[in-house]
Amino acid sequence: MKVCSRCILDEKFPGISFDDQGVCSLCQRAQMVRDRNQLMAEYRARFEELLEKRQGTGPYDILMAYSGGKDSTYTLELFIKRYDLRVLALTFDNGFISPFAIENIQCVTDQLGVDHIFIRPNFPLLKRIFATAARRDLFPPKAMERASSICTSCIGFVKSILLKTAMEKGIPFVGFGWSPGQAPVQSSVMQTNPRLASLTQKSFWPRMEKVAGEDLSRFYLSRQELSRPVADFPVNVHPLAFYPYDEEAIRTRIQRLGWQETPDTDPNSSNCLLNAFANQVHLQRWGFHPYAWEMAGIVRAGGISREQALAKIHEPPSGQLVESVRAKLGL
Ligand SMILES: [Zn+2]
What we know:
This protein is α/β, with parallel strands linked by helices and about 325 residues long. The chain contains 14 helices and 6 strands. The protein has a 6-stranded mixed β-sheet, with helices on both faces. Helix 12 packs antiparallel against helix 13. The longest helix has 21 residues, at about 150-170. The protein is globular and about 55 Å long. The two termini are about 30 Å apart. About 40% of the residues are buried. The model has no long low-confidence stretch (mean pLDDT about 95). Zinc ion binds near residues 4, 6, 9 and 26.
């Protein structure tokens, strides 16, 4: 099997090609982006400018998607210690949060003095969606290059609930802990708006409602909310794209907040027990690991070594973990 000599993508990845040195087409494209450090500084400045205008205008400065995993824990600390923001942390409970991650969430939010809410849709609903996503892909092939069908459904809920909650509460920023492999610096500071929100909703919720067999409008913006002025819409920010990202340094730092490793999750997640199963289904269906694209991006950004990334996507999932998920989903 041909594997890129620079990142970790192999010949099974859709549309990939290799040059004479064995460097993949995605690495070649990434190289064409102008100086990454300069780009990072630009987006950092853009965020700071917006903060000056909008900080203090709502009951909280930022609503943060807090999974309790290592990246979002680090991001939460950054918002508080680096930017002195008043954060409301929100955790989407998909029914599969590791009990160790729940402990981490409580410990870290208390340590940092952060208000926190859980949102847990009823499990029968999520079970229908995840079980269907396990049987067939619910999204176009392009989306499947970056994450599994199960992960994509879950994240769609998270993003939508965050946007709706921020608008309801009048919170001017929404924060995410996307790694530099998950989301590029060019999208790291983005004003959401009615047109974009409407397009995103149309590409996601009808699929979910069809699978769920019910109206899910309580999770997304109503027509009235969509007709509010742009100024009422939050700015999305994911600062790990414009701050140096080093996985080892992040672990060391958040352990000082009392965060502990989760021994029950797979190597690509530090909060979700569903992930190992979602990965296995995707790998069997598509022939490439759903984290390959993200890990390749982190390797290019210098966040982990190529060898560490390869190990993460090659480690076979725990059979016991996968079986317990299968049973819980009734498969
Ligand atoms: Zn590559």
